[in-house]
Specification:
The protein is globular, with a radius of gyration of 15 Å. It has a 6-stranded parallel sheet, with helices on one face. By secondary structure, it is α/β, with parallel strands linked by helices. The protein has one domain: Rossmann fold, CATH 3.40.50.2000. Helix 3 links the parallel strand 2 and strand 3. The longest helix has 14 residues. Helix content is 30%, strand content 16%.
Length: 166
């Protein structure tokens, strides 16, 4: 990892999944697909503290970030702190797999140029690339919905990648 993010010329992606462990694990194929399409990219993953260890042995992630909504990121001051932390990392794009209004706001406030997320929430206007799929109709597996969020970043059709651990 570059010590000065602004001096790093690689594409910089932030993947965000801050809910339960099982759903967080189902973002592994999205990480692999992104890494396969952007092998030189810098990929960060923002997760709840209790799910961060799940990613420590997973290949393709350059940096793990901890989102602490009951600790240092609690309330408006905490949200502004998160925004500042993200802005310092100079991301080109952020993909919000588990939509939360506070995280969508933090991405906008962090001035991340490309913010990808669902188009069906009241706060979807904070995303500038919206995906219109309802997950509650269960037409696809959760990992496939996660891959759908990446499709606009990929040159080829995404297929379900294999898990890759160190």
């Amino acid at each position: 990892m570059s010590t000065n993010p602004s001096s790093d010329s690689r594409k910089r992606f932030l993947l965000i999944r801050t809910d339960r462990a099982g759903d967080t694990i189902l973002t592994f194929p999205a990480v692999t697909a992104l890494r396969n399409n952007y092998p030189e990219a810098f990929i960060s993953f923002l997760a709840q503290p209790y799910t961060v260890p799940l990613f420590e042995q997973y290949t393709g992630i350059d940096q793990l970030l901890s989102y602490e909504p009951h600790g240092r990121h609690k309330g408006w001051k905490g949200l502004l702190k998160l925004s500042s932390e993200l802005q310092e990392l100079n991301f080109d794009a952020a993909i919000l797999f588990y939509p939360r209004p506070e995280l969508a706001f933090a991405l906008l406030k962090a001035k991340i140029p490309l913010r990808i997320g669902t188009g069906y929430r009241w706060y979807s206007f904070l995303m500038n690339r919206r995906i219109y799929e309802h997950r509650n109709d269960y037409r696809k597996h959760e990992s496939e919905y996660n891959l759908s969020l990446l499709e606009s970043l990929m040159s080829d059709k995404i297929t379900q990648p294999h898990y890759e651990f160190k």
